Amino acid sequence: MTAATRYCNQDGKEDFGDFIDKTRTSDVFYPIRLGDLINERYLVEHKLGSGGFSTVWMAHDQQKSRDVALKIMFAGESGESEIRLQDEIVRNVRDASSHFVTYLETFLLPGDGCHHTVQVFPFMGPCLYCPNVIKMSMTTRMSAALQLLEALERLHEAGIVHRDLNERNCMWGMQPLHHLPRSAKYKALGRPLKQTIPVDDLWKEGELVGPANIPQSLQTPKFYLGDFGLAKKLSDPATSRGYPPLQYCSPDRLHRQDPSPACDMWSYMILFSELYLGNVPFSTFFNGGIIGGFVLSLGPLPEEWKGLYTHPESRDSWYDQNQIPDPTWTLESRIASFRPDADPVERSHVLSIMSRVFTYDPAKRLTATQLLRDPSFRAIMENYGC
User: Fold this and answer.
1) Is 204 marked as a binding-site residue?
2) Which one of 23, 47, 67, 174 has the fewest beta carbons within 10 angstroms of its own beta carbon?
3) Within 13 Å and on the Cβ side, how many CA atoms surround 1?
4) Cβ neighbour number for residue 247 with a 10 Å cutoff
5) 261-277 vs 331-338: helix axis angle to the nearest 10?
6) Strands 18-19, 36-38: parallel, antiparallel or unpaired by DSSP?
7) Which of 48, 15, 58 is nearest to 213 (CA)?
8) CA neighbor of 364 nearest in space, from 246, 266, 258
9) Which pTM was predicted?
10) How far is 16 from 14, CA to CA, in rounded Å?
11) Under a CB-based contact definition with an 8 Å cutoff, are residues 258 and 238 in contact?
């Protein structure tokens, strides 16, 4: 058989979702059809998502009778650095299996005159991007915040910076579905909606597939950090390639400063804010985008950063030291606005930790270890039984 063959049940019938009518174009990805058997082992059953350099598919491992996620890299993306970082995590980060999603195996999938790197991962639950997070209990959300911070502490202790901490790379565990027939899996995750890739001369048939919708009822309390495509060891040469989404990127990184654990901590506090407030702490709706939001809430950026912004639309007003924060957009105002149900003492604890991480100077930001031991952070966790 070829690396990717079509799979049928013993009765010759297939059930791999419903075709829909939609027009899109292909990219430099490996064309997949639901029902393909990858590497003579992994039966593709659903799509989980896609990223900047890969597509991710739910598959059933026929050798070990388990469901997995296949991350199939675009042509030209080897994923070598990500694989190497995951090896480093498994070797050197304490209690790695309890906090991080690392690959189970990797292999090369022959393509059209090229090869695609495939990483096989455990099948995980919903990420923070899912819209149901706001409906989760505060205990569930604060438990996730605590576990994520513990993961960051272990990563930083090993001298590794994640560099891409955002809501898509943090996820809950997942109750196993491998014992269920495909019809039951589709009932739980939603039937795949798909369309044949509309390219006449494509070297292999493929499908555009809508992603699975993993319900909250299937998630477990465990929370994990994954996707190490931009991660680096602090001892390795600095690189400017790649940033987290602007909403999660620290202002120092946006002004050409090298990656550091402090950058991860800024991104972490954005995620904490989303979990605690149910919203982002900084506005992006005004002129100036996310940087304008920083200035509205925290005041002017350091004057010495002027001229270093990584994007072309820099504004002199961001660095004007005579500016003061807008009282309606300060961290204190945002906390009170989004969490009027929290008592004043709790809100003061939240303001305390946010203000000591959302500081422009990376050297003054709380580290993961400092935040874990901070009395205000511990008080918040204790309030929610974490």
Assistant:
1) no
2) 23
3) 12
4) 16
5) 30
6) unpaired
7) 48
8) 266
9) 0.89
10) 6
11) yes
